[in-house]
Amino acid sequence: MEFKYERKINYYETDKMGIVHHSNYIRFLEEARCRWMEHQDFSMEKMEEIGITIPTLEINCKYKYHVTSGDTIIITPKIIEFNGVRMTILYKMIDKKTGKEVIEAGSKHCFTDKTLKPINLKKNYEEVYIKFHDLVENDILYK
Amino acid sequence: MEFKYERKINYYETDKMGIVHHSNYIRFLEEARCRWMEHQDFSMEKMEEIGITIPTLEINCKYKYHVTSGDTIIITPKIIEFNGVRMTILYKMIDKKTGKEVIEAGSKHCFTDKTLKPINLKKNYEEVYIKFHDLVENDILYK
Amino acid sequence: MEFKYERKINYYETDKMGIVHHSNYIRFLEEARCRWMEHQDFSMEKMEEIGITIPTLEINCKYKYHVTSGDTIIITPKIIEFNGVRMTILYKMIDKKTGKEVIEAGSKHCFTDKTLKPINLKKNYEEVYIKFHDLVENDILYK
Amino acid sequence: MEFKYERKINYYETDKMGIVHHSNYIRFLEEARCRWMEHQDFSMEKMEEIGITIPTLEINCKYKYHVTSGDTIIITPKIIEFNGVRMTILYKMIDKKTGKEVIEAGSKHCFTDKTLKPINLKKNYEEVYIKFHDLVENDILYK
Known about the structure:
The structure is a homotetramer.
Chain A: E1 5-8, H1 22-39, H2 44-49, E2 56-63, E3 72-82, E4 86-95, E5 101-110, H3 121-124, H4 126-141
């Protein structure tokens, strides 16, 4: 079953165009990513406790429809690539009211220690490796 | 001669990783874009006064090196595509101290009226069309 | 019965101190204010539709305890003053896990039209005036 | 001679009211505070290198006049209280174009180690203590 993250747009997230500032959608992606990890019972905070940081290597975002304060978005993140060193996540974001696709986005990440040195989960954190790996499998199944 | 936008990183732009949060670089690109337009004597505010809004259609950003509070970045925006309806800008962002490339990014934009309806600068705002068009020319020249 | 707004802290809301940047708490207050108005069935968006904008005149915030990403805060806003022209709101914010008071804050607001010219709700929007006025009454009752 | 921090308002700092979102002024105060410390040759980064963090204990801000993207503000910070344990700073912020006072604000801070435990600069960092102390003296002189 897909994980869906629902959240309302805040007033301070709009700009003078009257709509959400495009930079904020990048933050919503992070929210969805973190909530989804937490839902899988390995929150970003747990990761950091055991010494894993997950920086962002790349962001791609196409803006298709705009929402504004008071609107509600629903974000569905999916891991489409993971090898223990890098991970690619795709996001579906729709406006709850209209069902329209708001953005089409993807993010790439690596795994590092606290000093931001790259690490290989397969070697150093097998349990975490398996968790992420299984998520990719599951993902493929319902594609 | 290239336009360069220099700015310091603020404390509130960092996150608990100790470096600039990746969403903020997208904002720095907008700053560079707006300062550069202002430098060309047609600031975003002037555009809006005459009825032109310039929403963002797409953002692509590769994070290569991280900066943090107190560091200074230098951003060089370049229009590489413009046809009066859409525009593509590429950005070079380096860390002033080390000269290292911080991100590699591009943004796509369209031109709309105040109600965010697309407009064609060539038809409706020839003077603005020529300005942008010339910038692309110049750009190609010093490539 | 008191309205309580519960929300999780996001990663991008922290700074390199490892805790929420102090400016973000001001945004959380706005969130609580807007959710509470919506709960009363006159959301900020409805207000704006009928021509009422509610700018902030003053913010006072004492930082007592820090939260960080993954923590959950619970905010309870209360109108303590309202006369149709101005309004004062106090906020209680606690950390859900520890129950500790995170900040002690208040905000003052006025009511304006779309051009930000002050208006008097009692004269121009009696229905809205009564709604706000009743909330202050209720508030006094459970003090 | 007074230190003045001049900065332009960015597009992403506005909200759908068409003006700077009130939370952003709190960030501008931090910018002014940090630039001013840097101007005194003890930047926030230097402080952190030697183990001093300067959290915010309190913010008070009265919003008097609004600016928007493209406008330029000039901020003048002044230390009015300092005892080695706590510090109070007042800020004057004007709109460069009109000279109008934008906000009237103050911030209170303490000094801590990296773990956010309070420290007394007089005991632990006499050199820093003297620097801050002298700034208060100078301040009183030109009042």
